[in-house]
Amino acid sequence: MIKMIVSDVDGTLLSHGYINPKCIESIKKAQKKGIEFVVASGRDYYGVTSILDPFDIKCSMILGNGAQYCNKNGEVLMNCYLDKEKLKEILPIFIEHQTPYMIFTTNGFYSTLKPEVVRDRFAYRGKVRFGNKMEDFLPGGPMSDSPACQIQQFDSIDEFIKRDLEIIKVEAFSHDADEIQRVLPYFKDMKNIAYLSSYPDNVEITNEYAQKGLILEKVIDQLKIKKEEVIVLGDGMNDITLFERFPYSFAPSNGEKAIQEKAYQVVCSCEDGAVSEAIEYALENL
User: Which of 161, 200, 215, 279 has most Cβ atoms within 10 angstroms of its Cβ?
Assistant: First the structure.
């Protein structure tokens, strides 16, 4: 019998700001049966709760691709933060290649770039990839509370790493996937980091052990849950460790090819209710 459902957000549960109502219904159905629903995302805590709160879904969360595990109240129960000294190696690569980036921390979002530059580049990427409107990211717009719109600028990396905060991840992005692909080789031999992409036009850098599948193994060990009692869902390469470590993995039909190839089962697209289809299958067959 399934005791836990673990789902990615973007591209798996959420499609261009839309969650199929069937998914909400199936999640709540599973929760009423005593099955724990867990989100596993590259997002931060507010980035997840802002999506789920309107549907009155409360759940535990794996955040920053595995840098944090929080309970439903937002309390961090496990963490695996990036060594701040690594910023001395990581940031110059993005700065030299003029690749926009933002640092997710336990106390806000930062970049050496001007806040409006990060916001506008992120907004343009959203326009190209998701069909968002540029004005959505301006003050008062529906996307104005996203991390890219809350950037605090700093000048000195040496000064920044002395601050009282922890690094969840560094995310670089572009409307042009080739721009991201050009910087990836620089991270291939960098020690003590993991770098994965939610989409081809971004890269997210974390502690090498801050990966969804790794932290989930620790979570279920504490909860005395077997891997065979868990289903996992994801669509991107930042979900790969979930698929490598858990036998019952489900990929939406819009997912990356490599993810679909590793999946226990490929279900319908995110937009058509992939999470619902996987949950209903699990309730009936696992």
Answer: 279
Q: What is the radius of gyration, based on Cα positions, of the chain?
A: 18
* Region class of 170: left (phi > 0), else alpha (psi between -120 and 50), else beta: beta
Tokens 């996987």 correspond to 278
Q: How many H-runs (helices) and E-runs (strands) does the chain carry? A: 10, 14
The helix/strand/coil state of 173 is strand
Q: How far apart are CA 112 and CA 227, in angstroms?
A: 42
Q: Say which amino acid occupies 65.
A: N
pLDDT tens-digit map of 143-192: 888 999 999 999 999 999 999 999 999 999 999 999 999 999 999 999 99
- The CATH number given to 4-80+210-285 is 3.40.50.1000
Top CATH class of 84-207 equals alpha beta
